[in-house]
Specification:
The complex is a heterodimer of chains A (about 110) and B (about 110).
Chain A (H helix, E strand, L loop, with lengths): L8 E5 L4 E6 L8 E7 L6 E6 L4 E2 L4 E4 L5 E6 L8 E8 L13 E6 L1
Parallel strand pairs in A: 1-9
Antiparallel strand pairs in A: 2-7, 3-4, 3-8, 5-6, 6-7, 8-9
Chain B lengths: L3 E4 L2 E4 L5 E7 L6 E7 L6 E7 L5 E2 L8 E7 L2 E6 L8 E9 L2 E4 L3 E5 L1
Parallel strand pairs in B: 2-11
Antiparallel strand pairs in B: 1-3, 3-8, 4-5, 4-9, 5-6, 7-8, 9-10, 9-11
Classes of the chains: A mainly beta (about 110), B mainly beta (about 110).
């Protein structure tokens, strides 16, 4: 079973910030929080990951609560091309770890 | 950044034939590659983990004789769907780990008619 819980779907207006929540209350001390997204009929795309500090890159920001039991992915200025399914996954940093995929959040950006 | 190239992107085959899907790591070496299957409107389901130079590890319920995995080099892993049937029609995706996380192929849409 997936170790994360996400809302099934969300809408966001184009140009606004999209905030996608994720609960991972059973995360262990050595597990990272990863975010990926999948645009229809494509392979998943890496967005960002973090351990306990907030992270930002050219795509998004990741806010992790102090107790690490939840996090929020922020797309600062959503565009129509950001419409996708967003997956929050917790995993060890070892690249041989399996990723366990939940259902993700279907984010629809509306004009 | 690390790129995994997956081919073909889509294939249509007749029932009973075999189809080979290739995944190459273009600028890094992948000792481990993961193979997923995704049915419409569902999440990714791990089928097997391939390890360079050794036998693949299959998830419960995945037939190893039907889904043949070969990982003969550090840059190439292949998945062969043998004796394909319409129920094997799906989206197949490979993935490899890198120091920054996992990178995925673009997927192969298999349709068995």
């Amino acid at each position: 079973d997936a170790k994360t819980t996400q809302p099934t779907s969300m809408d966001c207006a184009e140009g606004r910030a999209a905030n996608l929540p994720c609960n991972h209350s059973t995360i262990s001390g050595n597990e990272y929080v990863y975010w990926y997204r999948q645009i229809h009929s494509q392979g998943p795309q890496y967005i960002i990951h973090g351990l306990k500090n907030n992270e930002t890159n050219e795509m998004a920001s990741l806010i992790i609560t102090e107790d690490r039991k939840s996090s929020t992915l922020i797309l600062p200025h959503a565009t129509l091309r950001d419409t996708a399914v967003y997956y929050c996954i917790v995993s060890g940093m070892d690249s041989n770890y399996q990723l366990i995929w939940g259902a993700g959040t279907k984010l629809i950006i509306k004009p | 950044g690390a790129v995994v190239s997956q081919h073909p992107s889509r294939v249509i085959c007749k029932s009973g034939t075999s189809v080979k899907i290739e995944c190459r790591s273009l600028d890094f070496q992948a000792t481990t590659m993961f193979w997923y299957r995704q049915f419409p409107k569902q999440s990714l389901m791990l089928m097997a983990t391939s390890n360079e130079g050794s036998k693949a590890t299959y998830e419960q319920g995945v037939e190893k004789d039907k889904f043949l995995i070969n990982h003969a080099s550090l840059t190439l892993s292949t998945l062969t769907v043998t004796s394909a049937h319409p129920e094997d029609s799906s989206f197949y995706i490979c993935s490899a780990g890198t120091p920054l996380g996992y990178t995925f192929g673009s997927g192969t849409r298999l349709t068995v008619v």
